[in-house]
Amino acid sequence: MEEVLNLYQQPYNEGYPVVCMDEASRQLIAETRQPLPLQPGRERRYDYEYRRCGVSNLFMFFEPLATWRHVEVRRRRTMVDWAHCIRILLDDYYPDARRVHLVMDNLNTHRGASLYETFKPAEARRLLDRLEFHYTPKHGSWLNMAEIELSALSRQCLANRIDQMSVMQDRVAKWEEARNELQATANWQFTTIDARIKLRSLYPSINT
């Protein structure tokens, strides 16, 4: 926990950006009946029945100090999908960074092994040499600021039912562009000192 909090307090360095990464699944859902339109004093109404059309997975990358985010929308959340998202992050968005500090949850797909599973050894090693992993502790995913962005995405963009992958990708891309132009960021206030005071019961203790 303290490693992540100390990382958040570091000044901005474009050569060593701090990027938070998180992912979430979203069902693709179609209407079985036409929703009733808006009326004066009455919101648009949807029938409780729906038809499942598959699942999409959202890979969120968020650099708070640069007020930048990018969301990759894919059909699956395998180690191969994660590995391809990492290569896009490094080669397309941070080609000049010497090393990216990547904050993420401790999932079994979030490993250097996923890169070796997906790419040839030389390519996997090239990518790993430009990464430094920082895992949030168990039951401590709230330390990952990418969760804040996923919450904003869900509220602002995905409140209605979406039935097609192409529509999901289009909506997310427009939200991403608008939010980057707005330069929205997370107002993170929680520090290591706060953790030692408020979460002291979670720290190891030595009984003498």
Characterize the structure shown.
The structure is a single chain. The two termini are 25 Å apart. The protein is of the alpha/beta class and 208 residues long. It has helices at 2-8, 79-93, 112-118, 121-128, 146-157, 165-182, 192-198; strands at 18-31, 50-63, 68-74, 100-104, 131-135. It has a single domain, classed as Nucleotidyltransferase, domain 5 (2-Layer Sandwich), CATH 3.30.420. The model has no long low-confidence stretch (mean pLDDT 89). It is built from 7 helices and 5 strands; from the N terminus they run H-E-E-E-H-E-H-H-E-H-H-H. 36% of the residues lie in helices and 22% in strands. The chain has a 5-stranded mixed sheet, with helices on both faces. The radius of gyration is 20 Å and the shape is globular.
Task: Summarize, please.
With 208 residues, the chain is α/β, with parallel strands linked by helices. 36% of the residues lie in helices and 22% in strands.
Cα end-to-end separation: 25 Å
Strand content: 15-25%
The outline comes out as globular
Count of β-strands: 5
Specify the number of helices: 7
Secondary-structure element pattern, one letter each = HEEEHEHHEHHH
Overall number of domains: 1
Largest sheet data: 5 strands, mixed
Which strand order does the major sheet show? 3-2-1-4-5
The CATH homologous superfamily is called Ribonuclease H-like superfamily/Ribonuclease H
The CATH architecture can be named as 2-Layer Sandwich
* Low-confidence sequence ranges: none
Secondary-structure-derived class: alpha/beta
Query: Helical content, roughly?
Result: 25-40%
- Per CATH, the class reads Alpha Beta
Q: What is the C-alpha radius of gyration, as a whole number of Å?
A: 20 Å
Query: What is the CATH topology classification name?
Result: Nucleotidyltransferase, domain 5
Arithmetic mean pLDDT: 89
